[in-house]
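FAQ
Q: What does a multi-component entry look like?
A: The components come first, one per line:
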Amino acid sequence: GAVVSQHPSRVICKSGTSVKIECRSLDFQATTMFWYRQFPKKSLMLMATSNEGSKATYEQGVEKDKFLINHASLTLSTLTVTSAHPEDSSFYICRTSYEQYFGPGTRLTVT
Amino acid sequence: DQQVKQNSPSLSVQEGRISILNCDYTNSMFDYFLWYKKYPAEGPTFLISISSIKDKNEDGRFTVFLNKSAKHLSLHIVPSQPGDSAVYFCAASPSGTYKYIFGTGTRLKVLA
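Then the predicted structure of the entire assembly, as tokens:
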């Protein structure tokens, strides 16, 4: 069974609104989670490292004010895309530091 | 700056034959390597990994080879099956971190 879940699996939002994506680790505690995004037919790009109880660490070129990450518990990390624009449309995937498991991903479409 | 590269964007192989997917990296600090299989609109599925202290790891039909001096790794799938058709990503992790840096992907098509 899945060890990492994401919600929602798909979301469509209007430009200018904010969208929250949840990543949950099942059956284990994840002190660290990683957020990736994938554009169509492109590689998975690491966006940030989410640490439980502390600030996230963002990769170069990723706007921390636009992609808000909260890791309030050992089983939940959230990524909020603020003031979304069409260029934010992408496939967002989370991974925990436990083994090599990824979540199923969230398809965000901004119209 | 693409630290992990897969130079073949696509590969077609006949069913039953061997599939060889290649991956090159530039960062000598990478010490853990993985291969993932991915379908569109799904998260990557872990296949096999290898630590830099080894040069080969085998799991069923999947074998990963690591050549540290050449900064090259490869995934061998034998025998290939139509269900193996997907995009394959290699990933590398810098020493002391759990970060995975992904390659650009290779689309494998196994022909029946």
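Q: Is there any commentary attached?
A: Sometimes. For this entry: Chain A touches chain B at residues 4, 6, 32, 34, 36, 42-46, 49, 91, 93, 95, 97, 99-105, 107 (CB under 8 Å).
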